[in-house]
Design brief:
With about 140 residues, the protein is of the alpha+beta class. The protein is built from 2 helices and 5 strands, in the order H-E-E-E-E-E-H. It has 2 domains: about 55 residues; about 70 residues, SH3 type barrels, CATH 2.30.30. The chain is about 35% helix and about 20% strand.
Length: about 140
């Protein structure tokens, strides 16, 4: 090799200083990763805005009857079975969107995300009677 004036240098991962190609390729990989990270960040922000726009803001009051969405994963779901259970009665509404509900006994109340609830519409006379019963009992 000396006859042809060729200098042979071995470039390995442990000795990248022998050849500049390793640094060039590392910079290129870093640019690609930074671009992918930025694209992913923009995509997540876009999906969050889309989801937030489609949230339905519901307001609940203590004593109101609601249905609870049952989101349990079933391997063999029954086609005609309703995924809404209840009715439950609202005990407390919190400012951050959580709602405390109970079925029959107010001391067995539990907190749930307000997005999993929907209003339960029945005849108004029955609804007022149920609300009055719990209000008189001092359970609400």
């Amino acid at each position: 090799m000396e006859r042809y004036r060729v200098n042979h240098r071995v470039a390995t991962a442990s000795h990248p200083q022998t050849n500049g190609h390793v640094e060039v390729s590392n910079r290129e990989i870093e640019r690609i990763l930074e671009k992918a990270y930025e694209n992913n960040k923009l995509y997540k922000e876009k999906v969050k805005r889309w989801h937030d726009r489609r949230l339905v803001h519901k307001s609940f009051v203590p004593g109101q009857q609601v249905l609870l969405f049952n989101s349990c994963l079933r391997f063999f779901p029954e086609k005609l079975k309703s995924r809404w259970s209840g009715p439950f009665i609202v005990k407390t509404v919190f400012s951050h969107g959580a709602v405390e509900i109970f079925d029959k006994h107010p001391d067995q109340a539990f907190k749930i995300n307000g997005q999993r609830l929907k209003h339960y519409y029945i005849d108004t006379a029955n609804c007022e009677a149920v609300t009055a019963h719990y209000a008189i009992s001092g359970l609400l």
